[in-house]
Amino acid sequence: MAGLSLWPDRIARLIPSSRLDSIASPAVREAWRRFARAAGTGPWRERPAAMRRCLPDLLAHQPRLELWRAGEKLQQIDLENSRYRLGRDPSCDLPLSDPGLSRVHAILEKVRPSDRDFALEDFNSSNGLFHRDRRIRWIQLRDGDAVQLGSPLKGEAPELRYRHPRSPLEQAVHLLGITALAGSALLVSGMLLAASIGGGSKIRSISGPVKIFSADGRQIDAKEGSSTALPSLQAYPLHLRQALLASEEARFGWNSGIDLFGTLRSALLGSGGGSGLTQQVARMVYPEVGRDLSLTRKLRELWVALQLEVGFSKNQILKLYLDRAYLGLGTEGFEQAAQLYFRKSASDLDVGQSAFLVGLLPSPNGYSPCNLEDPGAGLERRNLVLKLMHEQGWLSDQALIDAQRRPLNIDPSACRESNFSSYPYFSDYVVAELEGTRFGLNLSDPEAGGNYAVISTINPRLQQLAQEQLKRFLEGPAAAAGLTQGALISVNTESGDILAYVGGGDYSRSSFDRVQAMRQPGSTFKLFPFLAALTAGVSPQDSISCAPLDYVGGCRHGGGSTSVTGGFANSENVVALRLAERAGFSQVLKLARRLGISTPLDGDYNTMLGGRETYLYELARAYAVVANGGRSVPMHGVSRIYDLGICGSIKSLDRCPERGVTTPLGESSRQLIRPEVAAAMDQLLAAVVQSGTGRAAAVVADARGKTGTTNDGVDALFIGYSPSLKILTAIWMGNDDNKPASGASGALVAELWGRYMQQAATAVRSAG
């Protein structure tokens, strides 16, 4: 037993003290010693509890914020709460005394309660936020980040430094990960040998991309490579291939395809990059590899790269890269980029133009000639690539001088006439539709999962309007009301074409699609009890008692009764419940199912008043039935698809053989409710806008719609349509964490609906 008592100290000595001094303070080392003693001494049954008591010290990590100016630290603040206002105003949570600051300069907060680190957002300040000499609006902070509160060009601007070092346990995990990665180098080498000998690569073919286009031919997705590529590797000029190898991976021709040195460097620094060409191709052809900076992503990337090296030749991998690399402004592949920037084929590029395109690769948008903040970055990158080619012996001294002196001659229309817009939420929806019953494609099958051109139903003008209006509203009235997220879908009420689709405020921050998220519909669900009552013979003019019903209070105006129209226009809960009882709760649920609501529903008061979660997408489809005279509206985002393996090229779709075109049969429209019932419901929806809770939508002359607000403003909705435009738009606003928003209401969302639909009407009429 005496030997066991020495075990904790032996554990503490496993890491040399010199190493401990470099990664932890004495207090941290003592915390580990206490943990080791708790794990190795005392009765076995008591050890788990003793170890748990030591965990708080090992998990401790205190974020703090420091204010610096002219190399001097002025303030230091420990961050205990989840949200702070920073500025010159003494009422700010973090008052910072500096004349260059706005009264409220920025907001520091955790986007989600579970987040480890804070985000910093400019609060429309006068002098702005600057990170690495670039003005920013928002940044997710990491330990060591420094953000200047004002332009560095205007004297000594104050600087915020964010400190949030790893906890002792996080440090240990980090070191363990680095050790595991180093050990994996030997493992990967062995796997490469085994796979080469046994022919073990599971990747035998790589399907072409799935590219999504609007009805007018604009490319609208941002995934999986370009449909425009040259037919062979030799079709790309030699100097383009040399520029790529000189810049990205000079060892490509002889290495294993796995840049272990770069991968280790990336893991040690916690930064991006560090991947060889084959590893980059792995991310291009298998998006499942991911793009985060984690160790697990690096291991996934290494494994796919290994498979590619075994299953494909170096020339094939290089061709995949040239065909699919992202080069800014939506261009994927060097052929597509050459057409946009120089209005010529990649096969006709000169050496300077090739070097320019290769120079874009590390940051296509940052080095773009369209980046007004740094328009000369592209030229600097071109010259850097030319120097690398010279160092590799691929350019003579005179050729280097000639290439550097030659003007780039970027086509001036490239920045304003790019036919690309990325609608990522809608692109995700389209892929799901392709894999659904309408088309039944298996896009995850590497043998048959792509090489399609998809013609969608999206209207680019309405989509752009929807994105802009939602973004502005979230930054303005919605933010003031405590709302941080929103979703919008617009549909043609006759054809079911999806015209605009926005699943959230910012896809780069969150790709979660809120159009198809489970949320409480609030009073927008009252469509169904009122429709059921009208179907059962109730008239819009009938008088309904306003007396309280069980726990539900009476009408807000305090009268003894109101008409069906008045009860719907003013969203009276007691009227909706009395009508649901008259029609029968089971009939209300049956009608909701018939109109497309698929989520769980119960025959109770809570459901009738919108307390059961459902999808905005399905609510929009149900309201569209009323707008379409009671006939079903088969909503869809894809009109047809072309198999490019048969059609040959995106440029020859009009000549594609019939067997290469798939147009789905689609769902035939059916009469779901009687036309006279739909007409009566249409008038009730009109009354909501004319005299009820949706008056903010009245800027559209023939607007119809319904507001919805759940308890404490957690969800706010407006769903409405314009008969003359034949467009229905459903909007939801709220917070992802269900945080209450006392200023939220369906009336507020009706205001956004009115703004958007008013501009949509102008766009549609001008196009027509």
Shape: globular
In the predicted model, the low-confidence regions spanning at least 5 consecutive residues are 1-23, 195-202, 253-257, 265-274
Termini, distance in Å? Answer: 90 Å
Strand tally is: 24
The averaged pLDDT comes out at: 82
Instruction: Give the helix/strand class.
Output: alpha+beta
Biggest β-sheet: count, sense, barrel?
A: 5 strands, mixed
Helix content: 40-55%
Radius of gyration, Cα only, in angstroms? Answer: 31 Å
Q: Which sequence of strands runs across the widest sheet? A: 4-3-5-6-9
DSSP strand content: 5-15%
Helical stretch tally: 28
Task: Give a verbal description of the structure.
It is a single chain. This protein has 28 helices and 24 strands. The N and C termini lie far apart (about 90 Å). Residues about 1-25, about 195-200, about 255 and about 265-275 have low confidence and may be disordered. About 40% of the residues lie in helices and about 15% in strands. The chain is of the alpha+beta class and about 775 residues long. A hairpin with a 2-residue loop joins strand 7 (about 130) and strand 8. The strands form seven sheets. It has a five-stranded mixed beta sheet, with no helix packed on it. Strands 15-14-24-23-22 form a five-stranded antiparallel beta sheet, with helices on both faces.
